[in-house]
Amino acid sequence: MEQFRNSALAAIVIAALATPASAATFDGEWNVQIASSNAACPSGTSVSIGISNGQVASTNSVVTASGRVAEAGAIQVTLASGMKRAVGSGRLNGTSGSGTWRAALCSGTWTAQRI
Fold this sequence. Notes:
This protein is mainly beta. It has one helix spanning 2-17; strands spanning 28-36, 45-52, 55-58, 64-69, 74-81, 84-93, 96-103, 107-114. It has one domain (20-114): Cathepsin C, exclusion domain (Lipocalin). It contains 1 helix and 8 strands, in the order αββββββββ. It has an 8-stranded antiparallel beta barrel.
């Protein structure tokens, strides 16, 4: 009985940690345009990110990106460059997406296009 419980527990943990197959729908390279709602903050910046098996990673050495895409396209991402850091959330739909971001003193919106 204990072996059955351990096997069942292991299966539940593996299932919880696995990336849903449909999250892979968003795999590939994305170009993200960032707009600021505060005139004192830079706006119009473009960042390339990559998504693989639902995991977000940066595709350039200046900005690091990390995060996750859920199976329905909801995305949570963190961008960092040196001491600066911003977090964003939103939704991807096939070849495009949009959402909001915030940092210590700035916030705004973002749009994305699959490259």
